[in-house]
Amino acid sequence: MIDHQVRVYRSAERLASQEQLAWKIAAVAADPVAVDGDVAEMVINRVIDNAGVAAASLARRPVVAARDQALRHAPAPGRDGATVFGLPARDRVSPEWAAWANGVAVRELDFHDTYLAADYSHPGDNIPPVLAVAQHLGLDGRALVRGIAAGYEIQVALVRGICLHEHRIDHIAHLGPSAAAGIGALLGLPAETICQAVGQALHTTTTTRQSRKGTISSWKAYAPAFAGKLAVEAVDRAMRGEGAPAPAYEGEDGFIAWLLGGPGADYTVSLPAPGEARRAILETYTKEHSAEYQSQALIDLARRLGPAIGDFSRVSAIVLHTSHHTHNVIGSGANDPQKYDPTATRETLDHSIPYIFAVALQDGDWHHERSYSPDRATRPDTVELWRKITTVEDEEWTRRYHSPDPAEKAFGARVVVELVDGTTITDEIAVADAHPLGARPFGRDSYIGKFRRLAEGVLPAAEQDRFLDTAVRLPELRPDELAGLTITPQPPLTASGTEGIF
């Protein structure tokens, strides 16, 4: 790996194109290095993971709306078009709109993969735009694997090196450039073209974190899909010779100078050297539970802690000692009253660890629909317990959250349960059970099991089998077989009949 120092340059300093971060990202994407076998296998796992969580969300209102919009945009004459989850494989739309519809379906339940470092991300959001372009242009499975691996590589590098959330910038500002780089790698574009697409994608996908603050709406699912859609459009423009603001990251009126650390900021972004394999996907991890990733380990802890408490009316207070990020984003440190509101949106409850921990304690389980239902959220004994749960930052958990050592890095907490008789129960967990270092790490069988659980009642068994048989052959798929990387209920879905502008 090569550590690249990234800082602000005054316009008079004339930072050369090949010294800019957008170019260095592009150079990695343009490098025709082979994809390692274990990386290709993990790409397959994440394609399966995305399809499973998309299946479970097909009937949800934001996904229906996005699919309706996509259906209004046919592919250009002479192009194959891209598939949309829920529709027959023969029904194709323009690739940027397939990236949009599929991206919303994948993101809606907050249930696919994650990577947390200086910032946070869901790297599986790179898959819908890369897949859509591959289908649209008739590319094969080998090219698709290369593009997805590159997207993950850039996403992880940016998330490791540049913190967005401390400046209230949403994490899709890293996704736009990574998706553009993944598409560039898929197409085998030269570094100059990819560089322009990366710069455009950064410029157009930088938004505020209000999408994950206060009342969290369906835009939380739409935001990554928006970044994927804009990445497809950015690559299209760059291929036609159109350029980007430059230096996109380092300019004196640019991203770092005004939206991140300011003119004196200095970041280190580590990227593979020429010829070095792209292995970052292996550092990422999926979710066993449909909730914000920092809650994954705490759901597992709650499942084992609940029986030790027994009668929850005995609880006087529960304090979760955890990292700065967990405390301030999904804990009581966010100072969002909505996180304790029984009438809050699903998206808001998904970002409330007091709510999630209360339900997981009482139910000994977590379900992507039942655990968020209005009846569940408003149950009086749950509301009573929920409002007894708070978080505090613990410096040691914050240090471990940011540790560069994978064996030490942790996303958990120490939990102290105070009972009305004055006794306490204490327990802790570092990583989720499904984490690579957890009690039950996810392997291929786990990904397939998760897919089948989420697809049950949505996809016929034969369609589940067909999709899985196609996905596990991903690196060998012919161009005409890439359409098989979609999922179709019986009967297939159609437009809902709602009307907008399109």
UniProtKB/TrEMBL annotation:
InterPro entries assigned to the protein according to its UniProt record, in alphabetical order: MmgE/PrpD_sf, MmgE/PrpD_sf_1, MmgE/PrpD_sf_2, MmgE_PrpD, MmgE_PrpD_C, MmgE_PrpD_N
Q: Would I find Transport among this entry's keywords?
A: no
Residues covered by the MmgE/PrpD C-terminal domain? 289-471
Keywords, A to Z, come to:
Lyase
Spell out the reaction equation it catalyses.
Answer: (2S,3S)-2-methylcitrate = 2-methyl-cis-aconitate + H2O
EC number(s) recorded for this UniProt protein:
4.2.1.79
Query: GO MF terms on file?
Result: 2-methylcitrate dehydratase activity
Leader sequence range is none
Q: Which domain of life is it from?
A: Bacteria
Q: Where is the MmgE/PrpD N-terminal domain?
A: 19-266
Respond yes or no to whether keyword Transport is given for this record.
Answer: no
Instruction: Specify the enzyme's EC class, one word.
Output: lyase
Q: Which Pfam families match?
A: MmgE_PrpD_C, MmgE_PrpD_N
Could you say which protein family the record assigns here?
Answer: Belongs to the PrpD family.
Q: How does it assemble?
A: Monomer.
Q: Which PANTHER family match?
A: 2-METHYLCITRATE DEHYDRATASE, 2-METHYLCITRATE DEHYDRATASE-RELATED
Entry protein name = 2-methylcitrate dehydratase
Q: Which species expresses this protein natively?
A: Parafrankia irregularis
